[in-house]
């Protein structure tokens, strides 16, 4: 499927900033490549606050990402095109990337499914996670590996998946049962000495 001229024009407008503002390239490369590790660490930290609210949030985020990945695979069967660096001349490709179907962006699926899940529960700092998701989304265009349309589709699918998981997961008796079993085992090896404030 051909990429629309608007999609290409918007890609060029963002990707060409890598030439105009080279001092920012390292920042966007970090967001494009390394922020996934920060996201994974955040899930571990939230989990080990040992509060039910945070643990259900992490479970919802994982389920949300699973849903988003399935929907993303389905969308990829209907819309298919290679990464811009493989299809367009003079692309500022700042990170290595294999050539496959660029639609939708897996990073957008991941970050919006997880970060929106955070934002729905963590009211104080939730907006920061949404900013992170947006920065990662822009970074994938900046470094030359996705079109804006790939990002927008991933963001939409991730957000819808997060909203669905937020409504469904806490109501599932199976989730509550498995969480209770896990916490009983956890308390045997790591007793709770004092109840502190949740993060």
How would you summarize what this structure contains?
With 199 residues, the chain is an all-alpha fold.
Give a description of the structure.
The chain is mainly alpha-helical and 199 residues long. The protein has one domain. Helix content is 70%, strand content 0%. α5 (52-78) runs antiparallel to α7 (106-121) and α7 packs antiparallel against α8. The longest helix is centred in the N-terminal third of the chain and has 27 residues, at 52-78. The protein is elongated. The protein starts with a helix and ends in a 10-residue tail after the last helix. The mean pLDDT is 93.
Provide keyphrases for this structure.
199 residues; mainly alpha; elongated; undecaprenyl-diphosphatase activity; membrane; PAP2/HPO
The string of secondary-structure elements, in order, is: HHHHHHHHHH
Number of individual domains: 1
**Rough shape?**
elongated
Helix content: 55-70%
Number of strands: 0
Unreliable runs, pLDDT <50, ≥5 residues?
A: none
Mean pLDDT: 93
The quaternary organization reads as single chain
Instruction: Please describe the biggest sheet, giving its number of strands, its sense, and whether it closes into a barrel.
Output: none
The radius of gyration computed from the alpha-carbon positions, rounded to a whole number of angstroms, is 19 Å
Strand content: under 5%
Helix count from the secondary structure assignment = 10
Kindly name the structural category. mainly alpha
N-to-C span? 46 Å
